[in-house]
Design goal:
A 4-stranded antiparallel β-sheet has the order 3-4-6-5. Strands 1-2 form a two-stranded antiparallel ribbon. The protein is elongated and about 70 Å long. It folds into 2 domains: 103 residues, Orthogonal Bundle (Topoisomerase I, Chain A, domain 4), CATH 1.10.132; 68 residues, 2-Layer Sandwich (Gyrase A, domain 2), CATH 3.30.1360.40. It is an alpha+beta fold. Helix 1 packs antiparallel against helix 4, helix 1 runs parallel beside helix 5 and helix 4 runs antiparallel to helix 5. The model has no long low-confidence stretch (mean pLDDT 90).
């Protein structure tokens, strides 16, 4: 029973970390990244479709994203979706390709991104702690129902805490790596 609780908590914590890392990949830093646009929703023949399904996306230069649509008729729809997004870049259309030239980040913008990053890190830590609390509540319920002993509950809570500490440390590591990337000029 304790193993099941630990396994469930570990799975939820892994999912939380995965969502956090996904958010980080979409956060703009000092260089161009296809993660900024690959999941951008584009209206294509009346259907909302992710850009990565409509085009080849690459970064030929450090500050440029190149989008090559598989279907040339999608260029205007992609351009419109980029304009409507909040990435803050104007697309340059040269016939059948779209180039996004990323402007250099200002010092103020870098500091705003770091504040946002720190807020997102704290939200992820809180989510991990909520998972810990739920697991500990399950352990207490099992003890009340006489399914496990007090020693087993305490041992289970210690294991849940180790798991929590591990995931909070990993969030901190990913966050500090992203902060260095954002502040890098």
């Amino acid at each position: 029973m304790i193993e099941e609780i630990l396994e469930e908590a570990g799975g939820k914590m892994t999912s939380t970390l995965s969502v956090f890392r996904d958010d980080l990949s979409r956060m703009r830093s000092g260089r161009a990244s296809i993660a900024l646009v690959d999941r951008l929703m584009v209206e294509y023949y009346g259907q909302d479709t992710e850009l990565r399904q409509l085009a080849n996306i690459s970064t030929p230069e450090a500050m440029q994203i190149l989008i090559r649509p598989y279907d040339k008729s999608a260029v205007r729809s992609i351009e419109k979706a980029i304009h409507m997004s909040d990435i803050g870049v104007n697309p340059n259309v040269d016939g059948e390709n779209i180039r996004l030239n990323m402007p250099a980040l200002t010092r103020e913008r870098r500091l705003e991104l770091v504040k946002f990053l720190n807020r997102r890190m704290e939200e992820s830590r809180v989510a991990i702690r909520n998972i810990r609390r739920a697991a500990n509540n399950d352990l207490q319920d099992f003890e009340k129902e006489k399914l496990i002993s007090e020693d087993d509950r305490k041992r289970g809570e210690a294991e849940v805490q180790k798991l929590t500490d591990k995931f909070i440390a990993r969030i901190g590591e990913h966050g500090s790596d992203k902060e260095k990337e954002i502040l890098e000029v």
